[in-house]
């Protein structure tokens, strides 16, 4: 005589079991991917709204799986964060970005600064030294690198986080706050952190200029950033209408498919060489 709940429970645990298995599979394959050189960075340009020129690039991780093809980070970064593998993965990203900047310099190419995404778990006391080592190993000037961090780090908010940020900034590295607007940071709160750039999350850019709420949020973020003398980047810009609205607001840079998807380093070099303009 059951409660009628057993089938549901059974189903639930079976689903959990599948999820755990899937995570374990991704984790072990990801370790191999690191060892076998299956990871690579793509670059997405950031464009100045004032000049129309490319003024930066965001490095975005890709996994070229021998069987499954190109896998996007949305699939494997969360697993890496859960399992702790994100440290190794993140270190690889830092290393590879610096290596790429060095290759560009050695080839005599004038390339813009590269932004590296950091997971909250990478943000520990050892980070400034790890950054310094990577920069030194490749002779990279810190002005060529920017770090993108997310709001979850600020919410954690401890003084130690601020101390690490200050150390990075003192080294000459600029900090950008990614996905802004999706978390809980208020103006007063943000002031505590040495952040030079805010990136408006794609979630709000998508609705421009038709969704009133999104327009209000974008306007508030830009106004606030201007008061704090921060650069403001809009991400996920796909239409000319969105661009026009963001220009009107006084946004500094934009990033999105309107201009370019993330592309391999060689394609990005070509784009820079062509003097590509918006
Ligand atoms: P993110 O940092 O917010 O990166 C922006 C994402 O938006 C990228 O997805 C990019 O391809 C996508 N995107 C850019 N413009 C447009 C657009 O106009 N329309 C649409 N629909 N999408 C656009 P991607 O490359 O799949 O990366 C997803 C997320 O994975 C990133 O979000 C970031 O959180 C994480 N990630 C990527 N690379 C790294 C990395 O090296 N380290 C860490 N910790 N996280 C990374
Ligand atoms: Ca980012
Ligand atoms: Ca983002
Ligand atoms: Ca985002």
UniProtKB/TrEMBL annotation:
Residues 23-276 form the EAL domain. This is Phosphodiesterase. It comes from Pseudoduganella albidiflava. The lineage of its organism: Bacteria, Pseudomonadati, Pseudomonadota, Betaproteobacteria, Burkholderiales.
